Structures are given as C-alpha cells and as structure tokens.
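Task: sequence design from structure.
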C-alpha cells in the first residue's frame, strides 16, 4: 500500500506538460541600422521598411529605428552608416538596444547579393549572418527573400501568432510595378492631339453653318428663302457643336491619362528635383509606435 503514493507522484511528474522552449525566449531590443549598397533611393527605402516589418513579426523582438530622431540627436552624422565599434556603442546607448541588424545589397553583373548581420552590441560580436544570391530585378526578388533571411538571423525565435514571415508576392509586386513603356505615352499624346484637332474642326464647321444661317436670315428679310435650307443649316450647326464638345471632352480625358502615364513611364534617370520619401515605423517604450518620414532630395 505504501507504493501507491509513490506511483501517483511518478505519474504526475511524467505527464506534467512541458513548457515550450520558444516561448521562453527573453525579450530582445533590436536596432535596425543601415541598409547600404542600394543606389536607388526608392528601392532602398522599400527594402529597409520591409526588413523592419519582418523583424517585428518575431516573438519577443522589439525593433527600434536607428535612423529615428532620437538616435540622430545622440550621434554624429558620420555614424549614420558606420559599423565601427564606437558608433555601435553610441547607438546602443541612444536606443537602449541589445543588438543591431545591418544589411548590404551588392550587384555583381546580373546577380544581386543581400547580406544581413546580427551584431550583439555588448561586445560588438556578429551573432548570426546570412547571405542570399538571386537574379537582379526591380527589387521584388530581394523583398521575397527577406522572410527567410530574418529567420536565419534569429533561429531561436518564431513568428508571432497570426503572423507569417515573408513578404507576399502580391504586396511586393504592388510596390515595384513594371514601368510604363514610353511608346504608350506617345500614343496617348497622339490620340489627345487627334481629339483636339477633331474638336477644332467640328467647332469651325459649326461656326460656318451658323454664319450661313444668319446670312440666309438676313436675305429672307427682302427675298424669299426656302425654309428647308434654314432648317438644314440650323441642324448642321447643332450637330457640329455637339461633336465638337465630345471631342473636347475626349481631349481632356486623354490628356489627363497621358499625363499619368508619363509620370509612371521609364524615362531613364529621375530628374534632379525629385524628392524621394522614406517612411518607417519604430516602437518606443512608453510612446507606442512612432512613424518617421525621411525625405531626400537628389542633388
């Protein structure tokens, strides 16, 4: 009879639920530092924002923006892209970060190479590093491998409930649409010019019919005029005026559409005056999510 309590105790120990190891991972504050090597400012801003979003999907990870106003006020401008120990130490003090994630994009011919590093700021040691090689494109490929790369950097953490690592291809394609071909713009311009010319021709024809109508009205004051002639001139003036108005409306619509196509067309290099915005969000303790907007003017 004395063995029964011992047997029950052993049964309780064996059948007790074991805690999930992944859920015990302590909270970690990570600063997203520079993403260098990408010359296209739009693409660089997109990659950086997508990388931050992927990091925020991991459990227990608090992501801070190293380019936020708080960080810039506490470090000099030369540390913006520097990986020197002194700059990383100042970054840790400014953001209270435990680790930092840095990235670089390199283009070797038709190949794009994405390199990410996870650096522990306490002793400036690279904890994890990952590299992805893929065909160079308009940036969609780089977006699609970010989820796998982030998981490689933090293998001990899993995605939060309801989150899935990886940028969906539909979302990536919306951010990097195919450029409009210039010939479409020129076709739209030609159609606009034809509509405008048609409107002008019909307007002149209507004006001529109206003048003839007024001339026959003056003649009818002294000489009999066939009424059918007057009715025909009046109908022609009204019809030509209607056609002219339709052509003017088509000109406005085609002109607006052509202007929009021209804005999104691939004309080569962007103009010098173009302002390229970059939007990023960061989580600051006690303040919630902070939206940071950077605008860079090409020089």
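Answer:
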């Amino acid at each position: 009879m004395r063995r029964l309590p011992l047997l029950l105790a052993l049964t309780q120990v064996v059948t007790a639920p074991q805690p999930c190891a992944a859920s015990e991972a302590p909270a970690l504050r990570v600063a997203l530092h520079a993403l260098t090597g990408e010359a296209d400012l739009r693409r660089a801003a997109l990659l950086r924002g997508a990388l931050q979003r992927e990091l925020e999907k991991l459990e227990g990870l608090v992501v801070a923006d190293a380019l936020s106003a708080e960080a810039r006020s506490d470090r000099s401008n030369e540390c913006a892209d520097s990986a020197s120990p002194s700059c990383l130490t100042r970054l840790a003090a400014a953001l209270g970060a435990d680790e930092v994630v840095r990235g670089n994009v390199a283009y070797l011919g038709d190949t794009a190479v994405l390199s990410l590093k996870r650096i522990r700021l306490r002793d400036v040691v690279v904890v994890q590093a990952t590299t992805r090689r893929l065909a160079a494109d308009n940036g969609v490929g780089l977006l699609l491998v970010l989820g796998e790369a982030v998981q490689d950097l933090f293998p001990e953490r899993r995605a939060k409930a309801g989150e899935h690592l990886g940028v969906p291809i539909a979302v990536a394609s919306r951010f990097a649409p195919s450029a409009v071909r210039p010939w479409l713009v020129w076709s739209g311009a030609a159609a606009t010019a034809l509509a405008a010319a048609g409107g002008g021709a019909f307007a002149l024809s209507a004006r001529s019919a109206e003048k003839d109508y007024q001339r026959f009205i003056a003649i009818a004051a002294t000489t009999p005029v066939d009424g059918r002639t007057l009715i025909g001139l009046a109908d022609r003036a009204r019809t030509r005026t209607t056609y002219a108005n339709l052509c003017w409306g088509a000109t406005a619509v085609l002109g607006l559409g052509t202007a929009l196509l021209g804005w999104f067309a691939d004309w080569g290099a962007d103009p010098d005056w173009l302002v390229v915005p970059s939007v990023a969000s960061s989580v600051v303790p006690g303040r919630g999510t902070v939206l940071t907007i950077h605008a860079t003017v090409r020089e």
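The chain is about 50% helix and 20% strand.
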